[in-house]
Task: structure prediction
Amino acid sequence: MTNDVELTPMMKQYYAAKEASKGAILLFRMGDFYEMFNEDAYKAAKTLNITVTTRDRNKENPMPMAGFPWQHLESYMARLVAAGHRVAVCDQMEDPKKAKTIVKREITRIVTPGTMMDESMLDPRSCNYLASIFVSESRQGHKGRKSGRRVSSVSLVTESVGALDVGTSENSSLAVGERDVASCFENDCYVGLAWVELSTGRFFATTTTFDDLFDSLARISPSECLIQEEVRRAFPEWILERTTLTQRPGWVFSRQTALDTLLKHFGLTTLEGFGFDSSSSDVYALQAAGAALDYILETQKQSLDFIDVLSPYRSEQYLEIDESTRRSLEIVQTYRDGRRDGSLLATIDRCSTAMGSRLLSDWIACPLKDRRKIELRQDAIEELISRSEDVGKIRDSFRSVSDLERLISRIVQERGTPRELASIGKTLQCLPQFKEFLEGSTSALLQTLGRRLTLQTELCCELDRAFQENLSLNYRDGGFVKGGYSKELDDLHDKEKGGKLWMAEYQAKEMARTGIPNLRVSYTSVFGYYIECTKSAVSSGKIPEDYERKQTLKNAERYTTPELKKFAQEALEAKEKALELEMEIFATLQRKVAAECAAIQRAAQVLAHLDVLIALAVLASTSNYCRPQMVDEPILTISEGRHPSLDLNCASGEFVPNDSVCSEEKGFLHLITGPNMAGKSTYIRQTALLVLLAQIGSFIPAKEATIGIVDRIFARVGAADELTRGQSTFMVEMIETARILNNATRSSLVILDEIGRGTSTYDGVALAWAIAEHIAKKIQCRTFFATHYHELTDLADIYPGVTNLNVVVREWRDEIAFLHKIEEGAADKSYGVHVAKLAGVPKEVVVRAQEILAGLEDKQVTATTDLLRQALRELSTNKKQKKEPVIQFSLLGPDNHPVVEELRKLKIEELSPMEALLILERWKKIVDGAPTE
Ligand code: ADP
Result:
């Protein structure tokens, strides 16, 4: 760094602040500007598109510098943080005019992606969480559930087809990029996970396992994750595409430090009141939470009183959805480009407020499992639908509701503006209307919400009396307090404004005294008050003795007088005092509102809940949704169900509704066959989405429905784009399938799309068969399995509970029409060539394909398929006919084969190419069954 001896006191101050800002870009306030120096200047210039200049231009080593006017702080900071930078703000802590030596400066805040609070930096409809991850060394042991990502014996063993082991090696069964993790930690070690939204004060913690961590992160979608320094290498690089990892020293996660941080902040002696038991595995959650709080305290440097509860998140209360299912069902963002538009959330979001939209996204991320709680929401929605007129008025009132939840946090931190305080006041004014509406309801949930709402009559009256209407963003020059609120302020304003009147009177008096008719008394902000006389008046000798010359112009002279000076002084003081007083009034009101933080936060939650329930009611009534009946048995009857997004986007009546039924009579495992483009994926996704919607309490797009509560939804659909993460599509498909087979219970809902497509036909069909068979025999959960392997339809003859469905296709001459209607029975044709034609494959190619197809059919080449079918059926029905399976190297192979054994022991680095070839040749013979010497 720069030699101390050469530094000016201010630069010494700068370097001290830079040191304290720990690698953040330092915005250093200098007068009306925030300046950045050296590397920071270049980094910021690139992001903000501003010019780098130099300080001390004439010296030999000028210092690179870039800056912007202080008024732009919020927007420029937002851009820097959005570009992934941490930003520290160093402010002037005293009025430079009053400072005797160098102005005192301090770091007032450090802003990072997870600790952003300012409205301008946040998407109003999305939560912005900071997560904290504590990886412990303790293992959950065998209590936990098995996972597809996890190691060993995720075997799709079936008695008939043989052992099709997937992922017998540790690394190969890990999800993409998580290999490093495995080398550092056991996947079932306990992990504490906390997440906090600084802009609203919501704070949660849970204990999970490393294995489930990535599913939880997918649900929470934090913009920043705190991790122990020493575990950084355990986190895969791809995670950086989704979040910023911030390393923290291990000791802040230590049990004692973390608990102390929490207890001190909440002013408690135990955290049991929040529902945590620190002598159980909850302690890991608390360690993560303590570290999160420590980080916030370090970065915020202001009151965190609005974070007043730490809530335990108990995953067993919610419908579980793993990361890949979440992505494939496009619940909160689209699969391809991660946008909100096009997701289920965007389709159903009819909320009037940002608070409502955020709550809805929480609901959809964590659907319920408790039937009673779901029904409470349904009751509320049903009532809201029936009270459409009142609801219309309440929706209108939501227009005056501002984002209380986020505003109150800013107010507690004393970062609010008069405009924000006034908007809180306007929102509080609406509370009586909301309360009356809620308390007049019959639904238990609406009534409870009504009871939770405390009116803030006095506070909102005071805010209304205090602030002018339509305030501008800039409040530094004052002028925001309404006349009549403070007598003292009004008097000062009178004095300040009285200047004009006084000047006119003084001018008349001086004109009379001097006899100069064109004498003027004026004021400019630069020059202050003065008397101006023309040169001719001056030469006429009428200027009195007590006029003191201030300035000479071409045609006039300017003077002041003792009286004018005295007045100027008083007016100036009045203006300054008025501004000071306004700021004081603002600060006092800010504190008054902050004192009601808990009640205002509660009001915010009530409004958000009401908004979401109304939004779901509006959705249900405008889009013709029905109330599903929820039951505990694992059944499903959706009549005339529609895909939520497609239904909305199709012209009325264009979307073809379909039934989804799982029952004793209709079976629980449905194999859906039919040509590509027929609507199989749409149908199975639709089924999953409707169950999910039902479990958030929403009505669903169907004629009627009975839905047995689902504990987990598993979706293995769509081609994964995992190749970029270094894994083959097939590997990913198998990992996900393994996870489903290991974790699904009788109460789960499984949707599978084209399993086995990523491998050769035999492998693929065998796998698909084995998977379906395992579900049919062992898991017996509600399953919708779309497949192009027609062979699989034979399963329906073998196992009870397995049913064939197909999508109706009309064929006329050489044309086909997709009717998108699901009917019972297996499809008999695949129409691949027709689809190719529809897709615009050149005509001659299509014609040629038709010729080949006809030829194959003539020659009954399908016999191969028939043989395969026969074999599969026999393998399933007659165990004795089971043959030793052919060695399948495509699936890692059986563990005990001599070739595999030898391969394991082989030291490739010690082999010459020729030796390697000879070994290969010998193995080939073994595998082919040829004699070896
Ligand atoms: P598959 O999985 O059989 O290849 P998809 O489910 O991808 O077929 O559907 C193909 C297209 O057909 C979809 O893009 C959708 O627009 C349309 N579609 C599917 N189901 C329906 C339906 N029930 N009603 C109307 N259009 C549908």
Q: What stands out?
A: Residues 562-595 form the longest helix (34 residues). The radius of gyration is 36 Å. The pocket of adenosine-5'-diphosphate is lined by residues 646, 655-656, 658, 674, 676-682, 820 (CB under 6 Å).
